[in-house]
Specification:
Layout lengths: L1 H87 L7 H8 L6 E4 L5 E5 L3 H4 L15 E8 L2 E7 L3 H22 L7 E4 L6 E5 L3 H5 L1 H14 L3 E5 L3 E7 L3 H66 L6 H22 L7 E4 H13 L6 E6 L7 E4 L1 H18 L4 E9 L3 E8 L27 H12 L3 E8 L3 E9 L1
Parallel strand pairs: 10-12
Antiparallel strand pairs: 1-2, 1-4, 3-4, 5-6, 5-8, 7-8, 9-11, 12-13, 13-15, 14-15
């Protein structure tokens, strides 16, 4: 019993040590992950601030670009008005000022044609246009130009074609690239943050990064994802001149989300490892115990063989002597009992042979034998079932050992005074053997532990009787042995369940 307590203490010590180790692992992992989360949060804040500042830069650039566009429009208008003034001027009017304005045009592409479409002059245009004679030769390229009609005499007129300067076109490309790169840098960010940029409706996606295509192409999933992102982080509102109001949705990176569940995965792995290690240790220890018990049992059977043979010989001699013949008869019964016990010990550790046996006869004969060898203050009653015989596959030697263990434990529980009842009941596919005593009972919390190896409530004992009894029933006879019921100070019912 003390050894059992020491083992329990060691188990609890190992359990507490493992629990402390697990708590430390989870705490340290959580601390590291929180540090990583704080660093990522800082990067996200810097990233979000950079988006706002860059959006302001894009807006300022676009305003500057629009002001240039306005200036060029004004410049083209002035140029057109100047050309019209020259065309409408009197012969004696000084046109030097207007000619200077026209000649100073070094940026705006301008083409002047007559009413027939013949090109009279062209400036700031490609050489290929300068080589053309009629404006019709430009084809679709003419669509890029705006035109002004200048009437100067009766039905004669000039047509001035002009368009944005190359400088303006280049600036327009720069601003378009700037806006596009702004979106790309927002969604493809160094922090690996999932990002969705929507328009002012907050439903239509302009761009996205680190988001799977299934979510983007499924409206229901997209709406759910946007809702989730909005609940975690407030979307950044931007106003871009070409795009209007935009909203940048973002959340923690996928790596950080995975790291948050890592301590639980780590905890599960460690728990599985501890459980497997404990089970392996228990199996190894149980296997070692079994080998020791098997060795002891076989050695005991071997040692009993010699005195049993000698006692059998002495019994035969007593029968031929002038003594009360009841003496050698009873001695013969005990010798036969010893032989049965030796048979039990010799069969431990090897698969027993089950033979069709009458259960009623086995229990009846054994109770009669046991009644004459226990205290007269203990009565054993076998309540025979309605069936005169119940044939089951049994190993008689081992099954009698189980009944003997249950009865002797009952006698000990009653302190040598009380009654034991053995009842057999049948069902279609099962047979139940109930051993009922009037002893001190078994506490509920101990009803499973009494079958554990080494457990005993006696001051002397190995604590193996019920362990072996359960093994004989459960493993060898494919049945069950358990405490059916027990009431403190009133008694216990042990039940054996066997298949027909």
């Amino acid at each position: 019993m003390k050894q059992r307590i020491y083992k329990a203490h060691w188990k609890w010590l190992l359990f507490v040590s493992a629990a402390i180790a697990l708590v430390f692992i989870v705490y340290y992992s959580s601390k590291l992950i929180n540090n990583i989360a704080q660093e990522e949060r800082k990067r996200i804040e810097i990233w979000a601030g950079a988006i706002s500042y860059k959006a302001q830069f894009v807006n300022e650039t676009e305003r500057f670009f629009n002001s240039i566009k306005l200036e060029e429009g004004n410049h083209a208008t002035i140029l057109a008005k100047t050309i019209r003034k020259v065309a409408e001027a009197d012969f004696d009017e000084d046109l030097t000022f207007y000619q200077d304005i026209i000649s100073s045009n070094s940026t705006i592409p301008t083409i002047i044609t007559n009413a027939k479409g013949e090109i009279d002059a062209a400036v700031n245009v490609p050489d290929s246009i300068n080589e053309m004679h009629n404006i019709s030769e430009m084809g679709a390229a003419l669509d890029e130009y705006e035109k002004i009609f200048l009437h100067y005499y009766k039905k004669d007129y000039l047509v001035v074609y002009y368009k944005e300067s190359q400088m303006y076109s280049d600036l327009h490309g720069v601003i378009d690239n700037l806006i596009q790169s702004f979106f790309q840098e927002t969604v493809i960010n160094s922090a690996s943050v999932p990002v969705i940029i929507t328009d002012s409706t907050q439903n239509n996606v302009i761009n996205a990064g680190n988001i799977d295509s299934v979510t983007l192409n499924t409206p229901a999933l997209l709406a759910e994802r946007l809702k989730s992102m909005k609940s975690g982080k407030t979307p950044i509102k931007l106003n871009l001149l070409d795009q209007g109001n935009c909203y940048v949705y973002y959340e923690e990176s996928t790596v950080l989300k995975q790291l948050r569940i890592f301590p639980f995965i780590e905890l599960a792995i460690v728990l599985v490892f501890i459980i497997v290690a404990y089970l392996l240790f228990s199996v190894a220890r149980r296997s070692e115990q079994n080998r020791v018990w098997v060795g002891m049992s076989k050695e005991t059977a071997h040692q009993l063989g010699t005195p049993i043979s000698s006692l059998m010989a002495w019994t035969e001699l007593l029968k031929d002597m002038p003594v009360d013949q009841s003496i050698p008869t009873e001695i013969g019964k005990d010798v036969k009992r010893l032989e049965t016990i030796a048979q039990r010990f010799s069969k431990i550790g090897s698969a027993p042979v089950l033979e069709p046996t009458d259960l009623v006869v086995v229990v009846d004969e054994f109770t009669q034998y046991l009644q004459s060898r226990i205290s007269s203050m203990v009565s054993i009653t076998f309540n025979k079932p309605e069936s005169e015989s119940i044939i089951l596959p049994l190993n008689r030697y081992l099954f009698e050992w189980v009944i003997e263990n249950l009865c002797k434990n009952a006698v000990d529980a009653m302190n040598g005074k009380g009654s034991i009842n053995i009842d057999i009941t049948e069902e279609k596919k099962k047979v139940f053997i109930d051993v009922t005593d009037t002893g001190k009972g078994i506490p509920t919390k101990m009803q499973k532990r009494i079958f554990s190896p080494g457990y005993t409530s006696k001051s002397r004992g190995w604590g193996l009787g019920l362990t072996l009894a359960r093994r004989i029933i459960n493993e060898y006879h494919n049945g069950k042995l358990f405490v059916k019921s027990s009431v403190i100070d009133h008694g216990t019912v042990m039940r054996i369940q066997l298949k027909k």
